[in-house]
Amino acid sequence: MYLKRLYTLFPDCSRILHLFSGALESDEKGIRFDISSEFHPNVCGDVRELERYFEPNTFDLVLADPPYGKEDFAKYGCEPFNKGKVTESLYSIVQPQGFMVWLDTILPKYKGKYWQLMGMIAFAQGPGMRCRLISIFQSKKEIGDIEIVNEISDQDLNSKPRNAIF
Ligand SMILES: C[S@@+](CC[C@H](N)C(=O)[O-])C[C@H]1O[C@@H](n2cnc3c(N)ncnc32)[C@H](O)[C@@H]1O
What we know:
By secondary structure, the protein is an alpha/beta fold. It is built from 5 helices and 7 strands, in the order H-E-E-E-H-E-H-H-E-E-E-H. The protein has a 7-stranded mixed β-sheet. It is globular, with a radius of gyration of 15 Å. S-adenosylmethionine binds at residues 20, 22-24, 34-36, 46-48, 65-67, 76, 78, 81.
């Protein structure tokens, strides 16, 4: 239901990355990315090395569902990582004017020169349970910025990700 509702906000987005996809069903549209092979993601890798897996400007929508805090990292058996650094590397692989949707119990750190915060939706699953926050960002990248940002001159906007299949 969460994803169905989100998709309605982005009717024009088709190149979707599910970051930290966990147990997301394999028939979900888009690319599932996770460090844990037990979930059989389309791309199994570490978010700290995102640029190794995907070309710049690959996605028009990234939906991120990271571990929230220390306990959650421990539950998934993963090392904590710097969420602000992840939002920076997402800027590179998201297309100009593309979107990043971050589901967490915090607003992640982000650089105002890269991302415009478009809105936030908070929700509670029930009494006594943690509230969660959906933060919606739009990339400030313009088509003309690409050469400067990625230091690539002949950028192919339709380039396919290195390991992913749409
Ligand atoms: C909040 S869970 C995902 C929840 C998922 N929607 C579910 O219900 O299973 C976080 C996911 O982040 C993944 N993860 C943790 N550290 C990671 C990393 N460095 N790179 C990629 N994925 C990571 C974990 O393997 C876990 O599946």
